[in-house]
Write a structure and sequence with these properties.
166 residues; alpha/beta; globular; 7-stranded mixed sheet; Aconitase, domain 4; 7 strands
Length: 166
């Protein structure tokens, strides 16, 4: 189980919808790398060219609202985002993210673009090491953490089937 991650912040506001994360014209593919090339293309044109493996998205309320498609969390995974921290998530985005292995944290952390965060999933603490502040969050339930660690629901299921000798 991945118990801790650290990364650089990309800060977003309230009601970031799935069309902002990945514009609808790119929904003709499910390839995470191809989707990542267009992530936040209209909302933050510099994102795809500047995002680095391990970066963290931080947002306000209702992150991932809009459509129910899995393309939005796939684009974030393809871009190398290690976690999304937000005050709240749209429920369908939340479950789609868990199903494909993107960790999410519901916490209100003070952060700006370029700050550095450390997230401890076991203790339920997210620290902004740049600003010297922290916030708590409910630790991810063990069964959901297993799905995330496996790379999502499909990969978890494949492993379970393989372990049963099927």
């Amino acid at each position: 189980m991945r118990s801790k991650i650290a990364g650089r912040v990309w800060k977003f506001g309230t009601n970031v919808d799935t069309d902002q994360i990945i514009p609808a014209e790119y929904l003709v593919t499910g390839d995470p790398a191809e989707l990542a090339a267009h992530a936040f293309e209209k909302a933050r044109p510099e994102f795809a060219g500047e995002v680095r493996e391990g970066d963290i998205v931080v947002a306000e309320e209702n992150f991932g609202c809009g459509s129910s498609r899995e393309h939005a969390p796939r684009a974030l995974i393809g871009a190398g985002i290690s976690c999304v921290v937000a005050k709240s998530f749209a429920r369908i985005f939340y479950r789609n993210s868990i199903n494909i292995g993107l960790p999410l944290v519901e916490a209100a952390i003070v952060a700006d673009d370029g700050d550095n965060l450390e997230i401890d999933f076991k203790s339920g603490i997210v620290k902004n090491t740049t600003k010297g502040v922290e916030a708590s969050f409910p630790p991810t339930p063990a069964f959901l953490q297993k799905l995330i660690d496996a790379g999502g629901l499909v990969e978890y299921t494949k492993t379970q089937i393989k372990n049963m000798g099927m």
